[in-house]
Amino acid sequence: MTRPPHPHIPWSGGQGVRPLRVLGINPWITDFAAFNLWSRPVGLLACLSMLRSAGAAVALMDCLDPTWDGVAWPRPGRYGTGHYPKTEIEPPPALAFTGRRYSRYGLDRDMVRQGLARLDPPPDAVLVSSVMTYWYPGALDALEMAAGLWPDATRILGGPYPTLCAQHAARHARADLLVHGALERPENWTRLWRTLGREVPPLPDGAGLRLALDLYPAPEFAPVLGSRGCPFACDYCASRALHPGFIQSDPGPVLASMEVEQMRGVRDFAFYDDALLVAPQRWLWPVLDAVATRWPEVRLHTPNAMHVRSLTADTCRRLKAGGLTTVRLGLETTDFDHRHDIKLTRREWETGAANLVSAGFELADIGVYILFGLPGQDLAQVEQAVRHVHDFGFRPHLAHYTPIPGSPMFNAACLASPYPIAEEPLFQNNSIWPCVPGGFAWDKAARWKALLRG
């Protein structure tokens, strides 16, 4: 498929004489830096899939996707990743002290407004997503734009920002409804339809696990979502606040979605699961078997780190045979006696790493995330971890700590940070190193960059 002439956004689905029309907007990123690492708003896509299955007509405006033919976009990187176009803007007053360039990433704002203004017929409701709490300015801008274009449309804000920063969102978001947590929660599903003045339909099968990927006219890549939530409880993570349970899909819908996307030319698929290797026989093994036997041209990627303790020799062989191309691991620290996640022993780490190499993965394809900037963290331990990863021949990556409301570590982060991170989500931005004494500094950043290069 090709992208439509800009600016045009089509409606999809809809049952009955006058179906409910819901427009989903994935807003711009506002930050010091941003990179497209197979980025898709899977929460928003799950919501649009649920609404369409319940009889609504849906449309998507993803401000982080090329969307229309002829729009200037940076040259793609490897396997569909790459840079976003950006427009430098004034930083919010709270971040002016940094003296750093601040930008809006994604499609040109005027072009987005022009495309939305041509949406015919207009929407009854506008559902705006949020991803990082400190990206909320883009979400608020999208809500304001919707209010100006369609004053009578119901404006809904969902995602991590209103879920984890509910009071801040209630004060600042021009929304008629804030969705706290996943839409498939029965109480959220009921509130949404009642807010819209409609009878509440039953939740569709697979709610939360099916994605409306067809709303992208010419995708370079596609997400794979076989589960929601996470059975672990890492101190720095708010997964349980966002998705308290852990559910997994049957393999059939996952395989069907991948097959459809391949028919549209997609070859790169990124796993979005927080716990990819938990109970892999449920759905992951059938997916890997299908790639190995039927889809040899497919490349799989794990931008979310895999749990090293699950990397048995058999698992690594299956991953390699099943097309895994980009490998990311979560080491986080080599201080094995004082870890912040489910305990990983040195032996488990070394065994998992050796199993990957034995399975045939190239060293250059294996990246390892190391947590940086935790409250009270000994940065000498981070340096040790970087050198440890280099010794294995893998590529270390610093995973800069984001203090997330709802995570077990957040109270400690509030005590460690000089910024009011509980009151203002902008200060939760990991680019300012919110819990590192002295905060971000260019000379320190350059030193860490040199250490990572080895």
UniProtKB/TrEMBL annotation:
GO molecular function: catalytic activity; iron-sulfur cluster binding; metal ion binding
Record-level GO cellular component terms: cytosol
Cofactor entry: [4Fe-4S] cluster
Annotated Pfam families: Radical_SAM
The keyword Nuclease belongs to this UniProt entry's keyword annotation: no
Gene3D superfamilies: Aldolase class I
Highest rank taxon of the organism: Bacteria
Key words of the record: Iron, Iron-sulfur, Metal-binding, S-adenosyl-L-methionine
InterPro entries: Aldolase_TIM, BchE-like, Elp3/MiaA/NifB-like_rSAM, rSAM, rSAM_sf
Matching CDD domains: Radical_SAM
Every Elp3/MiaA/NifB-like radical SAM core domain range: 220-428
PANTHER family found in the cross-reference section: ANAEROBIC MAGNESIUM-PROTOPORPHYRIN IX MONOMETHYL ESTER CYCLASE-RELATED, PUTATIVE-RELATED
Name of this chain's protein: B12-binding domain-containing radical SAM protein
